[in-house]
Amino acid sequence: MISVRDLSVSFGRGAGATHAVRGVSFEVAEGESFGLVGESGSGKSTVLRVLAGLNRDWAGRAAVAGVDVASRDRRLPRIAQMVFQDPYASLHPRHTVDRALSEPLAIHGIGDAGARVERALADVGLGPAFRFRYPNQLSGGQRQRVAIARALMLEPRVLLLDEPTSALDVSVQAEILNLLKRLRAARGITLLLVSHNLAVVGHMCDRLAVMNRGLVVEEMDVATLRRAAPREAYTRQLLLASRGYDRAVAAAMVSFD
Ligand code: ADP
Ligand code: MG
After folding, report:
1. Which of 17, 19, 96, 249 could serve as a FRET partner for 179 with CA atoms 20 to 30 Å apart?
2. Burial, 109: exposed, middle or buried (Cβ in 10 Å; 0-12, 13-18, 19+)?
3. How far is ligand 2, taken at its centre, from the CA of residue 137, in Å?
4. Which CATH number does the domain housing residue 220 bear?
């Protein structure tokens, strides 16, 4: 469902250039949940932005559902949608929830907006009363639910999730992660989840790739992660940094295994 081959992305030119992604390759099967982890600045968001079509300046190959991302094919937004880290920045402050959710439908010429908006709100656990609210009338968790609902409006096959809970309180994080698990189970959506936190990925994903300084340094399944047996010292260090968090979130997570 997702194929990334030898992807490279640089910002700027010459001696001052940042080589954010340096020859990254990975594959994600249909219905799989794949994690991309690594500390801040390792290039995770850049990979996601390429897949979402938000970065045009890259080398290598990237495809979703067999459609080359470089083609800028009109079907791409209906295949893969991105959810951003900061739900405070990702919703327009002067647009109602109704407008935020209707917009993708209008752009793609899909009718029956009202019913679809109400259904989408229900799917993310928000009642119809939320439809005409503004972002400043919502909590952080509610905003992220709206952002997820918006990403689902075109019924994509892939969700690209960029640290979707790291701006939220720990209790709210687990709610959003549970919601994403439920959506995946109900719809068979393929998830590509970026996180700097291995505990979150351990709860959400089947496999993961570890990035460091623009490179994938290790790829493994979650069983290996749970045995705390990653090969690379860098990964073990990330695991240690995620431990305290692990207990707090694990207590609140629903298991769909
Ligand atoms: P991560 O998501 O893993 O924290 P990013 O993909 O955001 O990492 O960033 C990787 C590197 O690319 C960082 O050094 C960052 O500063 C740089 N970078 C990302 N986006 C831009 C941009 N638009 N312009 C210049 N540098 C950028
Ligand atoms: Mg990032």
Report:
1. 96
2. exposed
3. 27
4. 3.40.50.300
